[in-house]
Amino acid sequence: MSSHDDDELNASETPGYKVTAPAKSPEEYAKMDAQDESLARWKASLGIAPGAAIGPAEGPKVTVLSLELVSPTLPAGKSLVLDLSDPQALAEVKKHPFTIKEGIEYNVRIRFKVFLLHPRGVKYLQVVKRSGIKVDKMEQMLGSYGPSPEPYTKNFPTEESPSGMVARSGTYNVRSRVIDDDKEVYADFDWSFKLAKEW
């Protein structure tokens, strides 16, 4: 990918906000304000407790499992899920793009797991291009999550797919990225879709 493509997938920055202090380990967070019972209960609910390692000691803080397009108009039994743990599925969706019905409401849904450390400011970024021209950019905060053996699911706000003959011509190429305030990238992948009159 060119550096221009990378620039498009940089998260926006809040003026005046700077990430200064290095991230702490769960043990360090657990020891902070240990005498405050309500704070200790809240931290325990996030999986922050001495010795509460959920995942491996090394490796990514966040693993993105899947991306899904969800719509109440989808026919029963049909799903549009991209399994990010399967390189073959990623290659397949580039060759055979998802088909999305024009003019319908849909949501992007992402599933991910958080391990050991608490990542700061994790965001989902998406740039959509058609014929090399940017037609849309999405930036959504995933939120704050503690380590957990179970995956988290985040539904993004409802959007409406374009409609009309012009919208139906050509393939839309999407580049998605999951990144945190420390500029650590947890997922960076390409996929494609086409618009049609029907699913």
TrEMBL record:
InterPro entries: Ig_E-set, Rho_GDI, RhoGDI_dom_sf. The keyword Cytoplasm applies. It is found in: Cytoplasm. GO terms for cellular component: cytosol; membrane. Keywords: Cytoplasm, GTPase activation. Residues 1-10 have a biased composition (Acidic residues). Residues 1-28 are annotated as: Disordered. One of its GO terms (biological process) is Rho protein signal transduction. The keyword DNA-binding does not apply. GO terms for molecular function: GTPase activator activity; Rho GDP-dissociation inhibitor activity. Belongs to the Rho GDI family. This is E set domain-containing protein. It comes from Sanghuangporus baumii (Phellinus baumii).
